[in-house]
Write a structure and sequence with these properties.
The complex is a heterodimer of chains A (243) and B (245). With 243 residues, chain A is an all-alpha fold. Chain A is 61% helix and 2% strand. In chain A, α2 packs across α4, α7 crosses α14 and α9 crosses α11. Chain A contains 14 helices and 2 strands, in the order βαααβααααααααααα. The termini of chain A are far apart. Chain B has 245 residues and is an all-alpha fold. Chain B has one domain: Rhopdopsin 7-helix transmembrane proteins (Up-down Bundle), CATH 1.20.1070. Chain B is built from 11 helices and no strands. In chain B, α5 runs antiparallel to α6, α6 crosses α7 and α9 packs antiparallel against α10. Classes of the chains: A mainly alpha (243), B mainly alpha (245). At the A-B interface, α14 of A face α5 and α11 of B.
């Protein structure tokens, strides 16, 4: 669900009363045609509000909380669970951390390099997997009317619309902003995740937990790569015979 | 309208066949050029005016019609081989090129030639219409002759159909999936030709439309795959096979 143009105009009035649309676009780096189109259609995207909030030094989560569909974001941020935090660490970072563990290679004393910021290549799917009690997908599908296969397709493509991200967090009973972080709409900091929280969560994993987790990630990655290779091979065969 | 359809189809086929000449000279999938060239010839022979010219040059005994049938058989055979191999339809490939397929081809060919020889075929006539009008015996013979001529293409088309339907839903490039849909549609049209005898006489035009739909779908489907390959920029990167077991 996008935001209504009316509510957006009211919000814009409250944060930049004297700014023209052109000013707002210039400051926030949004293309004028894009914003004009969204206003004409009466549907303003979430990322527009986020960009403008950042330009005017307002927390985008707080700004979004003022819109009807996103009131769940209001109030003090709920701290993310350890699973959520770990899900937002890229597989490469997880593997580096694992290699730096004494259990893997006692001779290597060097600490793993700092974590790259969220989101990563599979952050959306990893986030949903991290908060899924086995029924979350069904509940999201029931509450939003989005077909399970469409939902899965979005996760596979590492995408999730803001409203589905919110609905997923709600269905799983976790902090409402987690999905917005996983989809890269807002940063961890904007969501109120404590600095270094992901690193701490990673450090708190035992060698066994970390190894198992890295194994799961590798297995999932292997599946995706294998499938891509098979698709590629099939396409090449078609080219070879019919091209 | 039917004339327009015939000549348009002929033009499209001829253009695609001509466009294949450079890649054929380079040695790329020569049989594809063969398929397009044979289809062009088949369409040429199925249009009244060129048919009469060619057949009278061959002696005016409608041998051109028999030639047309075998050109179609050749085109559909190579099309079946190429498409089933390209789309990895091993079952269809075995069915078409295996004992069963060759037996079907030989049997239908024998029937076709036998019926042709049983008829008094003097007097060039496109679609053997004048021959059919001679007497009830010739009418029946022409019907069987036509059915035999449509049977082999229908056999190959049906063999390919499952693989084409599967390919539409596969994770292939979108142009290839559209091409698979066209090939599937062409296959359905070819299979439908078997129902021509039960078609009411007033619907002769429908026969033409089904025939040319089939040819157009096949030709455009194949051309689209070729276009998709060209557009993909031929990524000739050697794939790593280390993950394959």
């Amino acid at each position: 669900m996008t935001l209504s143009a009316k509510a957006f105009q009211r919000w814009l009035q409250s944060i930049a009363p004297d700014a023209s649309t052109a000013d707002v676009c210039r400051v926030s780096g949004i293309k004028r045609t894009t914003l004009a189109q969204q206003l004409v259609r009466g549907k303003v995207s979430v990322s527009t509000v986020v960009s403008i909030s950042r330009a005017y030094s307002i927390n985008p989560v707080a700004a979004l909380a003022g819109f009807d569909a996103y009131t769940a974001l209001a109030g003090p941020p709920r701290p993310p669970s350890r699973n959520e935090l770990v899900s937002q660490i890229s597989s490469a970072d997880l593997l580096r951390a694992l290699l730096a563990r004494p259990a893997m290679d006692a001779s290597r004393g060097a600490a793993a390099p700092a974590l790259s910021p969220a989101p990563h290549a599979t952050s959306v799917k990893n986030w949903v997997d991290a908060i899924d009690d086995g029924e979350v997908r069904h509940r999201v599908s029931a509450s939003t009317g989005v077909a399970p296969q469409n939902y899965s397709a979005q996760l596979t493509a590492n995408r999730l619309s803001p409203e589905l991200a919110m609905a997923t967090a709600l269905a799983a009973g976790v902090g409402p902003a987690g999905g917005l972080v996983a989809t890269g709409i807002i940063t961890e900091e904007e969501a109120g995740w404590p600095p270094g929280a992901r690193q701490e969560a990673l450090d708190s994993l035992s060698d066994g937990e970390l190894t198992a987790l890295a194994g799961d990630r590798l297995q999932a990655l292997g599946k995706v790569l294998r499938r891509q290779e098979q698709d590629q091979a099939q396409t090449e065969k078609i080219w070879e015979n019919l091209g | 309208m039917i004339e327009t359809l015939q000549w348009t189809t002929l033009a499209i086929c001829a253009v695609i066949a001509a466009a294949r000449i450079p890649s054929t000279l380079r040695g790329e999938n020569r049989s594809l050029f063969g398929i397009f060239a044979m289809m062009t010839l088949a369409i040429l022979l199925s249009i009244q005016e060129p048919y009469l010219i060619i057949d009278s040059a061959l002696g005016g005994t409608n041998i051109a019609n028999l030639l047309l049938r075998f050109v179609i058989f050749g085109a559909i055979y190579f099309l079946g081989v190429r498409v089933s191999r390209g789309f990895g339809a091993d079952k269809a490939y075995r069915l078409i090129t295996g004992k069963a397929g060759i037996t079907v081809l030989l049997a239908i060919s024998a029937v076709l030639v036998t019926i042709f020889l049983l008829m008094d075929t003097a007097g060039s006539s496109a679609g053997l219409l004048d021959i059919s009008a001679k007497d009830p015996r010739h009418f029946a013979l022409v019907e069987y002759y036509g059915a035999a001529g449509r049977a082999y293409p229908a056999f190959v088309a049906l063999a390919l159909l499952p693989a084409m339907v599967r390919a539409i839903r596969d994770r292939l490039p979108v142009l290839v999936r559209i091409a698979a849909a066209l090939l599937a549609l062409g296959g359905v049209a070819v299979a439908l030709t078997m129902f021509f005898p039960v078609l009411p006489p007033g619907l002769k035009a429908l026969q033409f439309i089904i025939n040319y739909t089939a040819v157009l779908c096949y030709v455009l489907g194949l051309a689209l795959i070729w276009a998709a390959k060209v557009l993909s920029g031929r990524p000739a990167r050697s794939r790593k096979t280390s993950t394959e077991t």
